[in-house]
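Standup, Tuesday
Yesterday: got the pipeline producing structure tokens again.
Today: sanity-check two examples.
Blockers: none.

Example 1:
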Amino acid sequence: MAEEVSCLKSRLMEKEKEIVALKDKLAQLEKKCLTGLQLQEKVTTLPPLKPKAVLSNEDIMRYSRQLLLPELGVQGQLNLSQTSVLVVGCGGLGCPLAQYLAAAGIGRVGLLDHDQVELSNLHRQVLHGEDSQGQPKAQSAAHAVRRLNSTVECIPYHLQLSPENALQLIQQYPPSQL
């Protein structure tokens, strides 16, 4: 009987190790899936945004308050969905900017930052949370924006704006005809 108990304890310990390894693997996969966004470490050419002919029922519900504004209306909302904006810096100013752009229904938001999230950022950089410490700020911000509005295309760039990449980056986000 003691031998059988010892054998069962040994098997249990092996299974517990397997569970720990599987939990670690799951956590890594969830982290990748949660972001669901390919972090850009170089500038690549983006395809144009697909035009929207009409607003969906979900769009009408989501943007109902701003659709009532005579200055915006349905055509203005459709124009917003065709607009691209590059946010340079995902810190104290870039975070609320990206948040409001996504909430308004901008079609594409590029998020450019070369830094990583630190605990000392969290009190003023509202898109980042404790769980995103150590992540690139662009990726953390993109994840938060996607949680807020999944219809907005987010492109996180883990880059520093430089004379070598500025023109190519900015050309990806042409001025709007609003």
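Example 2:
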Amino acid sequence: MSATKAPQTIVLITGANQGLGFEVAKKLAAEQANYHILLGSRNPQKGQDAASCITNLAENTSVQATEIDILSDASIQRCVSEVEARHGRLDVLLNNAAIGRVDESSRREEMMRVVETNAVSAWCVTEEFAPLLKKSEAPRVVMMTSGLGSLGMTLDPARAYYGLDAPAYKVSKAAMNMVAAVEAVKYAKDGIKVNVVCPGFRKTNLNGYSEMAGDPADGAIEACRVIIMGKEGPTGRFTTLEGEYPW
């Protein structure tokens, strides 16, 4: 009699058709056996194209394009319904989708749109998926944040990016960090681990593929480490490759 196959670990990554989200999907797919990765994308065709590029798969691991527009409650709810119908639960949610700035807008519009995308939407997605996360044996939420959202680093003249003029992005990531902290406390009783990770300054569309930035593949390492933690892993932590970050 053959042994019963263990269920796949179901992971949803928002904004995964490019950049850091795509790198996380690739790394998980290549290194983690028995995973099913939902590659979230606002544009269905871009999601399908990205998913089809990931061909190096570990044993019993699969990748599926999934439509989700984090700025649309209706889209988020449709995605929840699809995940529930197909899998009955969600094991890991990576809130990765983000923007850096909004061109040709007023200061007020830019601040509101960046904060809505990076922080408010991460909260909405987490709340909508919470019932499915509660059905997992080892549920985890990971927020892809930035050291630029750290109050401690912002006020430290010794830091490399001290004084960098990116107020909307900084505020949005500080707000995202608070969302994670609030959710970590709220869902502790349900066993849901909520953590934030900083990928470092990586070459992506977010920064116009800056030549000063590092390899985006390296930016996926810490997120993947936290994603694959078991149920005994920590919660309420802010980490990067170098260790803990100041909140």
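Quick observation on example 2: The CA atoms of residues 15 and 97 lie 4 Å apart. The beta strands are 9-13, 35-41, 62-67, 92-95, 140-144, 193-197, 238-240, 243-244.
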